[in-house]
Structures are given as C-alpha cells and as structure tokens.
Amino acid sequence: MQGLAPFDRGVRWGVLGTVVAAMTAGAAGAQRAPGTNATPNLHVLAHVPVARGITTGYQDILDIDVDQDLARPYVYIAHYVDYDGFDIIDIRDPRRPRLIYQWQIENMDLRRGGGASGAYNPRVFKRRGRHYVALCTQFGAGKPDRDLGAIIFDVTGLPDTTTVKEAGRITYPASPGGFHNLFTYRHSDGRALLFTTTTGPRANIYDLERFLDGDPNQGLIGHIPRPPVAGYGNPLSGYHDMYVAYDPIAHQDKFYGAGLGAGYFVYDVSRPESPRLLTSMTGIAGMASGHAFQATPDGRYGVVQMEYQYAPIRIFDLKPGLEGSVQTISRPIGAWSAAPDGWRNASHNHQIRWPYVFVASFDDGLQVVNIMDPANPFTVAFWDTQDGPDLQGINLQLGVRADRDGPGNIYNGAWGVQVRNADGLILVADFKTGFWIFKMDGFDGWNGHHWGVPNISSAQDWDNGPDGAPKPKKVT
Fold first, then answer.
1. pLDDT digit string (tens) for 406-451?
2. Maximum alpha-carbon separation in the chain
3. Domain CATH number, residue 361
4. Is 21 exposed, middle or buried (0-12, 13-18, 19+ CB in 10 A)?
5. Is 1 within a domain?
C-alpha cells in the first residue's frame, strides 16, 4: 500500500500554503455548496440527508459508528436536541445507502429544549455471538431520566429491523446528567467493556456481559479518576472523550482520556478494577477544554483536540511521560489546522489509521492528515461537507441556530467520522447536510501490519481480541 503524496509539506505546524486559494473561498460570508472546496483524490460515493430538527432546522446528527464486518454493512448515527435517538443505514451498496431504521426515545415533547441534551455516540460491540449498539444519553435538569446514561440495543437480526430491541438501560444516580460519551472495548482478557464519561470527576467502567446477564450493579466494575490540575477548570469536572487500546509493546490495555479544562491522561487499565495513572499532558499553552484524545497504534504519540475556535490539533510525544523522565508533558511536538487564514475555524473529532488522521473538521468538512512525521503533519485530502458560510453554527446552550457570522459559532459542518478498515470507506456525519460516504485514492483498506505498526485502531476485533494480546481464557 502506497502513501499519498502531500500537496505541500507546509511549516512545522502543518499550515499549508498551497491550499490557501482553495480554502479562502470558504471565508466568512461566502455562500457555498458542499464540495466547493475539495481535492481531486477524495470521491463522494453517496450522500443521505436525514431528519431535520424541529427547533433548529438543522439535521442535528452527531456521532457515527460502523460495523467493521463486511457481512454486516450497517452504519449507526446518533441525533440530539429534537430527535434524541439514532438511525441505522444499510451500506451494502455504498453508492446507494438506505435508511432502514429510526428510533426515538419516549416522551420526546418533555425532553426538547434547554441545551444540548439527547443521544450521542453509538458504539457497536459483540458478545456471545450477538451484536449490540451502545448509545449514550444526556438529559438536563427538569427532564425525564436525568440519571439515564446509556441504552443498549440488540441489532443481531439486521437487516430485519423488526428484531431490533432494547437490551437494557444503564443509569448512574450518583452523578445525574447522563453520559456524554462512551467507548466499547474488547479487553485483552476477553471481556467486552464499556467506558463512559460521567458528570463527576471520573469515568466509569462496565462489564457488558455482567450487565446483559442482569447484574444488580449494572456491570459497574471500576472508576477512572480525573486527576485535579491546579488552576485549570472545575475540579469536579471529568472527561469529555476517551479512547482505549491495547499496547502490544508494553503489554497493557490503556485508557486515553481528555479531561475537561484540565489536560489529557493515560491510565493502565489492564486490571480495569484498579486503573493506574501512567502519564499526563497538562500545563499546555492555550489549554481551554480537553475534548478528544487518540493514540497512534504503537502508543507513542497522542493526537488531541481542544474544542474552541482557533484551536489546532496538537500532537504529543508520550514517551518521556511513559518512561517517567518527566512528571507531565506540556509541549506538543507538532500541530495542524485546516484553515490557513489564521486557524480561524475548529475541528471536532478524528480517527487514526496510521499514518493518516481522518478529521471531522466542522466548517472545513472532512480532512485527511498525514502524521508519518508527527512534528510535520500535512494535509493530503479534504472535502467540504458544509453548506453555506462559516461560523453560523448552533448555539448549544439555546439549541438554536446562530444565523450570524460570529466568534465561537463553530458547531456546524462535519461532526463525526469513522473508517471501515476492510475496504477503506470513510463515513462522515455532518451536523447540517447529513451522512456522507467517501473513498480516497490509494486507500483501499487499513491493516497496521502493512505499515509496520500494530494493527490497533478504534475498530475492535470482537472475536480474537487486540493485536498482540495473549489469547484470553474467556471468550465473548
């Protein structure tokens, strides 16, 4: 498999001079259609608009996940604000995707309004030959189910949508407000685990087999504290996003948590009942809110996002912290932004498939970045999924459209991104324009071994366990 040639190596911080002309066309106030700003090596296979919000007029679609098994060609997309549910899209023919199922939580009229409440971040998992989706929820004060954090659905019988059913709900009364994010993980010991945020200074760990078997404690087996950081944010706040991966070099299962307003933290969760802090990134210049954090397949580098206007993606070398030569890591070794005009916009989420980072970059759409040299990331492809001028996004506090070009109105455009490793499909959920399927020239699938790195990504091998892990005694 050959890597893609860069358009320009750019400067150390990854701002590309060669894309200035293309990107400037999307400056504030310039009306444009999706695809106006694009590179020729990204191709749209399909676009599916989905349900529009009642109060916002937007489609209000957020996070996205995909079954990695080609025999299960299903995509799961969450909705919030007005919809509070999820969709299932059949991509058996990627050029002709079909919306086959929609689910909304009960009592919708009692849940609307009052901020960014709703359903988030669907994640698939497998247990005892059955297939599931975990969906997290958050409902504000005065709304039903204030303590509801996640709903588990059995989707084994797809494409027969009449077989989709709830398998159970996870509540957490100790910290009302639900779960903003979650991550399903095939642990090296064979267990299917669920990691979730909370509204307190911790993440929760659930054994999904115990939960599905009716454990009275709902499968809760551990907590990951968010360490306090002097001078940064609310000491009671916890995590925003998380990523969990096996490190075959250190022989450890590792949790990578983005701490709200504090920094980023790496824990050894080889024994999830007793997590152990390994290293942190704190005291970072421009630190406002830790949002997203993923590691490269070898666990060496951390790619992080901070969710505020002008924030670039930052890349950290985790080695000094993991080896104990520094108490905490505070300086990135590289950074990247889609916009060359002063890093005007922001990005939201990303997926690493070494050496690429696939970025859902809000107003700048889908961006693909090469981090083969982490100190000099460069753009290799982009396709603007957004419709209209920049910085006219949703006001998440009011749940309404800003309808003006203004600082901080970044919540628009590409929100979620996923990659199907078997064939290299790139899937994007755009807050305004809907669901997109892309193919990139030269990227026909991903396996880490083809690049000389462990075959580790957010995609889980539910049958065999993580790459390089010992064969577990217990099989899900």
1. 455 677 788 899 999 999 999 999 988 889 999 999 999 999 999 9
2. 59
3. 2.130.10.10
4. exposed
5. no
